[in-house]
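pasting for the record
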Amino acid sequence: MISLQINRGSNLALYRQISEHVKTEISNGRLPANTQLPTVRALAKMLGVTRLTVQNAYSELRADGWVEATVGRGTFVSPSVQPYRLEPTVGQYLTPDNAINDMMQINQVVGVRSMAMARPDTTLFPVEPFWRSMEKIRFLDKDLFGYGSVQGDIQLRFEIVRLLEDWGLTAVSPDDLLITSGVMQGIALVIQVLAKSGEKIVIDEPSYIGVLSIIKAQGLNPIKIQIGHDGPNLDHLETIFKQEKPKIYYTIPNFHNPTGISFSLEKRKAILELANRYEVMIVEDDIYGRLAYDEEPLPSIKQFDTQSRVIYLNGFSKMLMPGIRVGFIVMVPTLKADLLALRRAFDLCGPPFLQRALAEFLRENGFKPHIRKIRPIYKERRDTLLQALQAEMPPSVRWTIPKGGFCNWVSMPRQFAPGELYRLALQRGFAFTPGEAYDINRPQEEHFRLCFGGLTSIGIQATIKQLAQLIRSGSQSSSWLPIV
């Protein structure tokens, strides 16, 4: 018998509550593949809702691939929802590159509740306004279907300058911008221009998993600086700058990935002062900067930069839709020629049509209303995650409290073999990102990242409950105990 509950006081529509509860029952194994679901009439009567509400819930489940319906037979859990359909390599090799591959595969598998990927919710994408923007430019210029400028569409660069002015970056011109195919391409371009194979780059510990892959691919030597609740230890950072003489410090001061913390204003200014003193270039990734839930984000490090010491990167994958693949670099004059030359060598240019469509979307004031809409939704999910952790986790587990973004970092005493908790979770139909993927293998501690953007509150609660059960069972049976 299916067990569902609905909350009429929730902000989540009733049909979505039903579909989310069904997904939970499927992912935790209580509704195996090929199980028949109640008829629309029966479930509507059981829950006290209209048939249309149940029909909409079943329609969403069918569209997402969780169930299949046959006329005359009924609605059944899809055979494709079983976690065994993951590739055999998923969960086996926890390098940064393989972890990214895992995330992308898990994201495509129906039946796995994933908190592994820092992604926005597809149901919140501004699809209709963006389609209208594309319709407006449909007949304007056939050149939009040809090659574009290596630097990016000029109209899009003008619109991004307007956004940056609102964000406090008032000294940027369209000629300072390089449009990239997502922020990750921007990071790769900047790092390759700044440092040669074997040279040193400072990164936070832990750091964005994508930059770890880029560092490995480019043969750089990473120097790690641990970060606390408000950023790195400044004395340690100065020692690294002075003794190691790195070329670059890559960091995410606003709603850091993977920890979710934000650097204090004092540390932002101090980091820049140290970079100026020791001639280290700062690569500032601000991809989550506008996704602030409690108060306005602090100024970026770039806002205090008077010596062209900071290269600022941002993009629209988290704020709008990752599928449009638009990021941008605020270049510094000394590196502009090299960045443009390398971009030409990488892929010549980005897609002019999509860039112009985004320019039209921004010009029509589509961005600000969208941000106002999604902030409270993601804030509710952040709050749900923190409440669920507090309610479900053993006392030995601790976590960060992000004020924005999509990431939360969880730490606990080591009680599982490296990667074991991750693989056990996958077997039970849910996922997170293990600390080992960030090149963190400590005998006494275990870490993992939870991303709350892509799941509803119901999905978050269900996932944390299952995760806590696994952790509690491991603490009772595992031989991997903390070293004292």
